[in-house]
Design brief:
By secondary structure, the chain is an alpha/beta fold. It has 14 helices and 19 strands. It is 33% helix and 22% strand. It is elongated. Bound molecules: adenosine-5'-diphosphate and magnesium ion.
Amino acid sequence: MRIYRKAGDRVELIALGRDLDLERGEYVLASDGNSTLVLQVIDVEYADVPGALEETLRELTTDALGDLVRYDPMDVESHVRAVRDSRLVITKLRKVIGGPSISLPSKYATKIRKASPHEIIGTQSRSRIDLIQLGEEVLIDPKDIEGSVTIVTGRKESGKSHLAKLLSTSLVANGYVVLVFDLNGEYVSLGLTKEGGHSDVHDRLVTLSPGLDYLIPIHSVSQEVLADVMTFALGLPQTSLRELLRACRDARERGRLSLRSLYRAVSTAPMNESVRDAILNRLSTLESSGLFSDEPGLHDRLLEELSTRHGRLMVLDMSCLGPLQRRILVEYVLSCLREKLFTGELDPLILFAEEAHLYLRETYWEDVVTRMRHIGISTVLITNQPDSIPALIYRQADNVFAFNLRNGTDIEHLARNLDVDAETLRAILPNLEKGQVLVWGKVVRYLPLTFKVLNSCLLTRGETRRRTVQRESTTPSG
Ligand SMILES: Nc1ncnc2c1ncn2[C@@H]1O[C@H](COP(=O)(O)OP(=O)(O)O)[C@@H](O)[C@H]1O
Ligand SMILES: [Mg+2]
C-alpha cells in the first residue's frame, strides 16, 4: 500500500486488490521512521486508473470473439490487470505520532501496516487482570466506565444487551457493584452458564422482583424520598406536597410510619379539601402499586444487598411491572441511592438502565451529567432509539457503543452530537454485523474502534420469543 493523497483529515491509500485484507473500522499505521499517521479505514473503492474505461470496453468487444490465445511471453497482462484492479482505501487521519500534527511522512519511504486494537487502545503492555475483555484483542479499563456516562445504542437485535450483560458481569467479577433496571427480565439467569453450571457471578447475583419478593418498607422511606416519588412519579403539586409532608411528620411523631397512619393523618389534618383529595388520591395509587409494605420488621433488601464491599450484580426484574409502577419504583430507587451515597451509607455503584426513556423522567438526564456521577452513580444507558437520549447527554457522554443503525435520522443524530465525523458514522454504522460495535470515548482513548463483541458462555434470556409455527405435514392423498 502507498499513500496517494490527503485532503483535510481524509487520507487515501492505493493498494493492489489481491493484497487487500482490511475491514471498515480497522486501523493502519503509515510510518516513515520519523512520524506515524494513525489512519482508520472507512471504505474501499476501485481506484480511478486512467484509461481503465477504455480498456474495459476493449475487453468486452474481444470477449465476444471467444477465448483468444494472446501472445504474452513476459506475462505483462497480469501486471496490467493488477494495476487496473487496484483499490482506493479511504481512511480518516485520527492522530499523528512523533512530530507536529501537520507533519506528513514521506509518500515513498512510508511503510503501511495494519494495527491491532491493542496498539490503538494502548493495552498491549498492561496486565489483563484488572482489565475487562470485550473483543478478541479489545481490553478496556473498568475505571473508564466508573464515574462516567456510557451510552449503548443500535437497532433492535443488534447486540446491545449482549454487550451490556458482558460488561456488567465483568465489572462485578472485578469487584464493582452493579444495579440493573432489567426491563425484560433478561439478566436474571446470568448466574448460570449455557451448559447449566455456575458462572463467575453466580454467588454475586441477587435478583429482586419488586412487588413480589421485594417490598419497600414504608416506615424507612425518608421525607425527601417520599417527596421525590410524590412529585416526580405521581405529579403531586408543591402546595399539596407541603401538606403531605406535614401530615407525614405528625404520623411519625405518633409512632411508626405506615400507609394506614398516613391516610389517617391526611384525613384528619385541617387542610383545603381539594388538596386533601389530591393527596389521598396519590396515597391510594402508591398503595395499589403493590410495591410498598406496612410490615413492622421489614428491611429494605435492595439497600442491604447494595451495601456490600464485594462485587454484586443486583438485578431489579421489572418485567412484571406496568408503566406507572416502573416510574414509582425507579424514582424511589434513585432518590434513595442519591440520599445514601450522599451520606456515605452506600459506596459508589454502576447503574445499567435498559430503555431508560420508558421510566426515567426528563429532568433526570440533567441529573445524570451534573450531579449523579459526582455522588458516585456511574450510568450505562442502553437504547434502540438514539434520539430518546437528549443531545446534552451525548455531548457529555464519556463512552458511546454504537451497534448497527440503518436509519439515516438516527445516524445524523449521533453525528450531530458525537465527536466522530459524520462520514465515518455513515460509512461504518449501517454495515456493522450483529455483535459488531463502533466504540468511541475514554475506553478507547477517544479513537473510534470497531470490533466484534465476544460471544458469551453465560445463559441469557434476551432472545426475542418467537412463536414456533409447526406446519402439519400434508401427505398427498391417493
Ligand atoms: N457478539 C455476539 N456474539 C454472539 N451472539 C450475539 C452477539 N451479540 C448478540 N448476540 C445474540 O443476538 C441476539 C440479539 O442480541 P441482543 O443483545 O439481545 O440484541 P439487542 O439488545 O440489541 O436487541 C441474542 O440472541 C444474542 O445472544
Ligand atoms: Mg436488548
